[in-house]
């Protein structure tokens, strides 16, 4: 299994896809952190710099990088079918489930430095910019918890990406489907009170549970799981997708 | 991530030495596979012996690729088995070290040929230095660091062959490996396959839809048509059975008289207008002898198709998936 995980890393690092996705993750995290800090304290904007609410909110933007980790995982799995390397891959490892497990492990581990980079950029932007505006946040207590959750969410989304890729096999379909789901379907579901109860059990709700920083009045607080519950639920989505994908899709004849 | 090989999982390979490589026999027994209503392979059985090149021949759509994919565990047969010394491909403890296969010539376009090979070195627990060794073996050493997306079809064939050779396997299974090769490449491949089988004792199974390609490469042939076994045997056996069944083309200033003479002697003759006569079911020797006895001047005398080609046409006639109307092309 170690050999198979190393083979997946060789595949990952011998094309340049990861560079673009890592850059995208860092730009997105850093950009949102800067925007939020710049608007902080304005009329109708985020809470003012120096307040605990602002700090938690600003540091949590690192979690926006999950979408890049998701795409990384999807490409990692679906490239085998897109570029027809599934044939030599399955010839080398005829037990196809082992290939999927190796990819899950390889991409979860590869997502760790990926997550660290996104978190580090977020921290750097927030500390420098908010510091210039008067008060750099501390990186202890709840702030540290927010950063850790955001980082873990990024890792878990890479796992979900591999699972989704195993299920769908089609690269473009999987990426487009995932983006439409994350940015169109889920926001709609969370907006209606009729479906809001379901939303907390969906990937987006679970992600929000992991990284939420809402501290307003209890009455208008979104109905979400605990942080750790959200994390486990997300991981469960990824692993179930990988399992179902292996049973139904990956084991199908390679055309 | 370091690049040093994890020694624990790797063991050295000594290319060319046959000491560690036991001969392996491939046995295909009663394989069948249908796709919907289309029966791609029907009750197909044959054996592939070590130390020889076995040509797997048949027209396009005869089920060759489907058969090879079932042999390699990529598709599940409806019935039947395919084994390597009694073991099915997915059950081989280290399949890459026993069997090397070329089925696809598709690669990740952005990855270099060398890195492509290194991926499979790692996955199979082989030292990554094997990548450079097999690149040199197939004559791609200079192109190894270039992106595979820029390779010509011939280079892709060579890279696919290099992938198959990584584990120094006892068996090679190659699907149409000559496709896209230039004449020089085909000549090289022919020699290379014969070397792997005859000098190194490997079992080589190579598919093709062209008999001419196999006539100079294979020792044995397995001919399939419409998913069924049509003929299995050594090329020499087949050739002797087909002796004298080819077509002979003769050109003569006295074409009319030649046609008469040959026809009177019992040959099947088809004269055409420009001084040519085609004689079927015989050899150039017999036609030449007859013309000499009759004193007919000849300007050309040659075999248009060999007896073997004629036999192959006959065996597989009408079994192409999209067969042309009879006589329209050949």
TrEMBL record, chain A:
Pfam families named among the record's database cross-references: ABC2_membrane_4
Source organism per UniProt: Geodermatophilus siccatus
Record protein name field: ABC-2 family transporter protein
Keywords (A to Z) from UniProt: Membrane, Transmembrane, Transmembrane helix
Transmembrane segments: 12-36, 56-75, 104-131, 146-168, 180-202, 232-250
Keyword Membrane assigned: yes
TrEMBL record, chain B:
Gene3D superfamilies: P-loop containing nucleotide triphosphate hydrolases
Domain (ABC transporter) ranges: 26-251
Keywords: ATP-binding, Nucleotide-binding, Transport
GO MF: ATP binding; ATP hydrolysis activity
InterPro entries: AAA+_ATPase, ABC_transporter-like_ATP-bd, ABC_transporter-like_CS, P-loop_NTPase
Compositional bias segments (type: Basic and acidic residues): 1-12
Family: Belongs to the ABC transporter superfamily.
Span list, region Disordered: 1-23
Protein name: ABC-2 type transport system ATP-binding protein
CDD domains: ABC_BcrA_bacitracin_resist
């Amino acid at each position: 299994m170690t050999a198979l995980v190393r083979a997946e890393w060789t595949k990952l690092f011998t094309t340049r896809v990861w560079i673009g996705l890592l850059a995208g993750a860092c730009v997105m995290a850093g950009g949102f952190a800067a925007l939020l800090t710049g608007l902080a304290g304005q009329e109708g904007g985020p809470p003012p710099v120096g307040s605990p609410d602002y700090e938690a909110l600003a540091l949590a933007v690192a979690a926006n990088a999950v979408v890049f980790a998701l795409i990384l995982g999807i490409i990692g799995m679906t490239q085998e079918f897109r570029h027809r390397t599934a044939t030599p891959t399955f010839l080398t490892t005829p037990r196809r489930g082992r290939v999927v497990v190796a990819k899950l492990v390889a991409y979860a581990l590869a997502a760790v430095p990926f997550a660290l980079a996104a978190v580090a950029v977020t921290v750097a932007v927030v500390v420098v910019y908010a510091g210039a505006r008067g008060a750099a946040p501390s990186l202890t207590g709840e702030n540290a918890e927010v950063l850790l959750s955001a980082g873990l969410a990024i890792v878990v989304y890479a796992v979900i990406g591999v699972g989704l890729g195993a299920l769908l096999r089609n690269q473009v379909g999987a990426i487009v489907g995932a983006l439409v789901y994350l940015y169109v379907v889920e926001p709609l579901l969370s907006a209606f009170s009729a479906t809001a109860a379901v939303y907390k059990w969906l990937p987006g709700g679970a992600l929000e549970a992991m990284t939420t920083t809402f501290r307003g009045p209890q009455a208008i607080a979104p109905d979400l799981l605990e942080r750790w519950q959200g994390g486990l639920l997300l991981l469960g989505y990824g692993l179930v997708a990988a399992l179902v994908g292996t049973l139904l899709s990956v084991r199908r004849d390679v055309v | 991530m370091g690049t040093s090989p994890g020694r624990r999982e790797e063991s050295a390979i000594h290319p060319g030495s046959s000491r560690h490589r036991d001969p392996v026999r491939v046995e295909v027994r009663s394989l069948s596979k249908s796709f919907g209503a289309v029966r791609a392979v029907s009750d197909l059985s044959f054996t592939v012996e070590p130390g020889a090149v076995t040509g797997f021949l048949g027209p396009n759509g005869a089920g060759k690729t489907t058969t090879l994919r079932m042999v390699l565990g990529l598709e599940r047969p409806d019935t039947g088995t395919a084994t390597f010394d009694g073991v099915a491909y997915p059950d081989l403890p280290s399949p890459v070290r026993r069997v090397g296969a070329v089925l696809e010539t598709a690669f990740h376009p952005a990855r270099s040929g060398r890195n492509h090979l290194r991926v499979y070195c790692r996955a199979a627990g082989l030292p990554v230095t094997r990548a450079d060794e097999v690149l040199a073996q197939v004559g791609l050493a200079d192109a190894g660091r270039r992106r595979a997306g820029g390779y010509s079809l011939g280079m892709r064939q060579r890279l696919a062959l290099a992938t198959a050779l990584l584990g120094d396997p006892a068996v090679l299974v190659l699907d149409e490996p000559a496709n896209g090769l230039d004449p020089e490449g085909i000549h090289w491949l022919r020699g290379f396959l014969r070397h792997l089988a005859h000098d190194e004792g490997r079992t080589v199974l190579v598919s093709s839809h062209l008999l001419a390609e196999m006539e100079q490469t294979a020792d044995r042939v397995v001919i399939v048509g419409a998913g069924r076994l049509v003929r299995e045997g050594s090329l020499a056996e087949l050739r002797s059975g087909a002796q004298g069944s080819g077509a002979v083309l003769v050109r003569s200033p006295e074409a009319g008289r030649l046609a008469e003479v040959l026809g009177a002697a019992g040959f099947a003759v088809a004269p055409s207008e420009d001084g040519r006569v085609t004689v079927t079911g015989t050899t150039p020797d017999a036609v030449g002898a007859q013309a000499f006895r009759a004193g007919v001047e000849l300007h050309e005398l040659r075999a248009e198709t060999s007896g073997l080609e004629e036999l192959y046409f006959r065996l597989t006639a009408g079994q192409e998936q999209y067969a042309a109307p009879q006589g329209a092309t050949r």
